[in-house]
Specification:
- By secondary structure, this protein is α+β, with helices and mostly antiparallel strands.
- It has seven helices and seven strands.
- The protein has helices at 2-16, 21-29, 31-102, 104-124, 132-150, 174-186, 226-239, and strands at residues 129-131, 154-160, 168-170, 193-201, 205-213, 245-250, 253-261.
- The longest helix is centred in the N-terminal third of the chain and has 72 residues, at 31-102.
- The chain starts with a helix and ends in an 8-residue tail after the last strand.
- Residues 265-269 have low confidence and may be disordered.
Length: 269
């Protein structure tokens, strides 16, 4: 390209300045310098072009990688939700079966509640995040079903400040935590048990505290069950942080703390 460039320039200048013998002589003597300049310019252009195309290719590869990771993350989140659903469904069906003979009215009522719960779950499958108010409404359906199973032994205490109700969190996040609280609070005792759920906003972060009492002589609290593991995994996939789920035991009370970072809600889908 540099040689063609110099040849073309020499021919054009020779035709235009045919009578300028001194300049033609200068032109012939300066051809090596002109060639070097042309070669350097052409080389720089070639290198810049290569760098630009290489950068575009890297961006395209990064975009494909990001899309693939996003699809894998969404698939894993979906799998986690689907793994939780049969566990709860089997427990509910077993309870309905037990009630069908002795308490048919309660069994029918529980079937209706289970239907409402599953219908709400299907509607929420396409939503990434919901407000705490929506999440608690759906959680109440789950608690109503559990209260049919355990009767007066199970009660709940809910304390949420007004600011927290509009905060966003991953949909269907609280059910496995509450299920874990019920499992380790009621299964090994005949006493009445109150599950406490509190929510508050601190420095643009939604904090949800779920507590359940337990009897240390018959049960051990667990922060490593499948339900809590799935919640911890979901939070990591969504926020890339491992510190958003904490568990602790104090004075025969098991506490689970969930922290949900809040971003610009206008940009949240």
């Amino acid at each position: 390209m540099a040689a063609l460039w110099i040849t073309l320039v020499k021919w054009i200048l020779t035709q235009l300045l045919v009578s300028e013998t001194d300049y033609i002589l200068f032109l012939n003597k300066s051809l090596p310098v002109r060639f070097c300049i042309a070669f350097l310019i052409t080389g720089w252009m070639a290198m810049l072009s290569w760098m630009w195309y290489n950068l575009e290719e890297q961006k395209e590869n990064e975009s494909r990688k990001t899309d693939a990771e996003k699809l894998a993350r969404e698939a894993e989140l979906y799998k986690l939700r689907q793994q939780l659903q049969p566990h709860f469904l089997f427990n509910s069906l077993n309870s309905i079966s037990a009630l069908a003979g002795s308490k048919p009215e309660e069994a029918r009522h529980m079937i209706q509640q289970l239907s409402d719960f599953l219908r709400g779950t299907l509607k929420k499958d396409e939503q990434q995040q919901v407000s705490l108010k929506e999440e608690l409404q759906h959680l109440q359906l789950y608690l109503d079903i559990e209260k049919v199973r355990f009767g007066h032994r199970l009660s709940t205490s809910l304390e949420c400040d007004e600011a927290s109700m509009n905060m966003l969190l991953p949909q269907l996040l609280l059910q496995p935590i509450v299920e874990n609280a019920i499992k380790f609070g009621l299964y090994d005792t005949i006493e009445n048990v109150t599950i406490s759920i509190r929510a508050q906003v601190e420095q643009q972060q939604l904090n949800i505290i779920i507590q359940n009492p337990y009897d240390p002589s018959t049960a051990q609290p667990s922060g490593t069950g499948f339900g809590l593991k799935s919640v911890r995994r979901r939070l990591y996939l969504l926020y890339a942080r491992n510190d958003l789920l904490e568990t602790k035991t104090e004075q025969n009370t098991f506490t689970t703390i969930v922290k949900i970072p809040q971003h610009d809600q206008s940009n949240t889908h």
